[in-house]
Amino acid sequence: MTRERIYLFDTTLRDGQQTPGIDFSVEDKIAIANMLDAFGIDYVEGGYPGANPTDTAFFEKKRTTRSHFVAFGMTKRAGVSTSNDPGLAILLQSKSDAVCLVAKSWDYHVKVALGCTNEENLESIDQSVKAVSATGKEAMIDCEHFFDGFKNNRGYALACARTAYEAGARWIVLCDTNGGTQPSEVREIVAAVIASGVPGSHLGIHAHNDTGQAVANSLAAVEAGVRQVQGTLNGIGERCGNANLVTIIPTLVLKPAFNERFETSIDAEKLQELTSLSHAFDEMLNRSPDHQMPYVGASAFATKAGIHASALLKDPRTYEHVPPETVGNLRKVMVSDQGGKSNFINALKRRGIVVSKDDPKLDQLIGVVKDREASGYAYEGADASFEMLARRILGSVPEFFLVEGYRAMVERRFDANGNLKTVSEAVVKVKIDGEQIMSVAESVHGPVNALDIALRKDLGKYQAEIADLELADFKVRILNGSTAAVTRVLIESTDATGARWWTVGVSDNVIDASFQALMDSIIYKLMKNRDQAGQIAAE
Ligand SMILES: CC(=O)SCCNC(=O)CCNC(=O)[C@H](O)C(C)(C)COP(=O)(O)OP(=O)(O)OC[C@H]1O[C@@H](n2cnc3c(N)ncnc32)[C@H](O)[C@@H]1OP(=O)(O)O
Ligand SMILES: CC(=O)C(=O)O
């Protein structure tokens, strides 16, 4: 059976740029456009040339090779011709393959926001589409507030869509601009548009997530007949965001309800790049990926429940709706106080540690993890500390060095120039092969930084080995909110091999919790260097 094509339209660089707190530079935009182009998205909307210097500079060149490169803007203003509208002129001259024009389709907006007549707005749509088509570029219309407009004046909303279609627009995109429309309404309204004479092959959907249903609304529109879906990477966008393409794409590709009828530009092989695309985008935004994001989140295929882990290990389909590798994600069976023997055996096996189900040391390890988690540890986010704990109980962690003691001080004082400064000082005493080494360090970044510097300043014969160890992240969590609370510190470390590992420390003293996590990180690094730890095997 021939499948119909669904076209994917990405507006990360335009609507995504309207996200509070997100501000792309030209360089960011180039990098993101390259990512989308390489991934194989059909349309990449780059922004609004003429609206700001970044977008104008970005449109000086065509920035994609495979994807259609789209410039966004608005229809001509009422009362001027297309050739006398400076905003439209910039769009027509931009180095784009297509122009997507936002047009009012709710008569209330025509009156209040544009201040012109309904007929003048229809004339703007007609003339603007024709002006774009005359340049040879593909013309698209984003019918702003289409669903609200339809509910208030059905005839006028339909007239806007039909005017664009009859003027030659390749795509007429129905926008749920305020994001309040429900999936059942989307189905009904799309069907009415098609019945009015605009074919589904020319219709698109642009949904906002204000009721948490942008993805559901987009899929409902596809079921009702639209053939272009707009959205953004990781669902960024104005207010609560846009439809998340990172969720929509795997649903279209993997779910029989869609893949039996439709195909997209993303095949099964490309889909395996989805998790890394989503995470790379978060890296660019300098934020942590959402662990619970469908398909690509670190928790999307994770379980810490013993009953689930036991069944998963017998057959992953028992608790997975699709195999994680289809989207480039990983199955994760975690150890925690919710886990049974199956979780632990699996987690240990991945680290090259073989232990049998009836080994008493396994019971001892489970008991220690459950007790420690009750006192504040969280091993599911601290893989290296878990491994160290397991190896200690199973008796295979060498004693590289012994920390005999440490001291940390914080002093607020005036410096020689009379400026107030807060300086921390730390002293660490370690013993290596019977020899005592004492290191002192100062830091203006706090006592933990001073301790870290002191601990790593002189580790005797191991010093060269830890030269490439870097602390990538440091997270402090107060577990029961007062100054006498228990503190959990999570440290992310990395080294020149690109490996990353997480360690945890817990104490009612933040410095002590940090020191434990630092120590685990260093010992893990030394073991890893000797192939005694960190050999993660694929499941
Ligand atoms: C639903 C959406 O997401 S649409 C995209 C929204 N994105 C943006 O607005 C980001 C980029 N925008 C901008 O930088 C600026 O708004 C610009 C450069 C486009 C325009 O700036 P200005 O000329 O100063 O106008 P301003 O932003 O104050 O107001 C928008 C104007 O566009 C008019 N307008 C709005 N939509 C349309 C339309 N579809 N067709 C024609 N005119 C329109 C408004 O009536 C208003 O005109 P007025 O100034 O005569 O009252
Ligand atoms: C065009 C657009 O971004 C909207 O209507 O939401």
What can you tell me about this protein's structure?
One of its GO terms (molecular function) is 2-isopropylmalate synthase activity. There is one protein chain. With 539 residues, this protein is an alpha/beta fold. It has helices at 26-39, 53-58, 86-93, 107-114, 118-134, 146-152, 154-167, 183-195, 214-224, 245-254, 256-259, 268-271, 274-284, 306-314, 341-350, 360-374, 383-393, 447-457, 510-529; strands at 4-5, 7-10, 43-47, 68-74, 98-104, 138-144, 171-176, 203-207, 228-231, 262-263, 302-303, 332-333, 402-414, 420-432, 435-443, 470-478, 487-494, 500-507. Strands 2-3-4-5-6-7-8-9 form an 8-stranded parallel barrel, surrounded by 7 helices. Strand 11, helix 14 and strand 12 (332-333) form a beta-alpha-beta unit. It is elongated and about 90 Å long. Acetyl coenzyme *A binds at residues 15, 18, 48, 51-52, 74-75, 77, 102-104, 113-114, 124, 144, 177.
Measured by DSSP, the beta-strand proportion falls in 15-25%
Number of helices: 19
Indicate the CATH topology of the largest domain. TIM Barrel
Number of domains: 3
GO molecular function: (R)-citramalate synthase activity; 2-isopropylmalate synthase activity
Family: Belongs to the alpha-IPM synthase/homocitrate synthase family.
Pathway: Amino-acid biosynthesis; L-isoleucine biosynthesis; 2-oxobutanoate from pyruvate: step 1/3
Catalytic activity: pyruvate + acetyl-CoA + H2O = (3R)-citramalate + CoA + H(+)
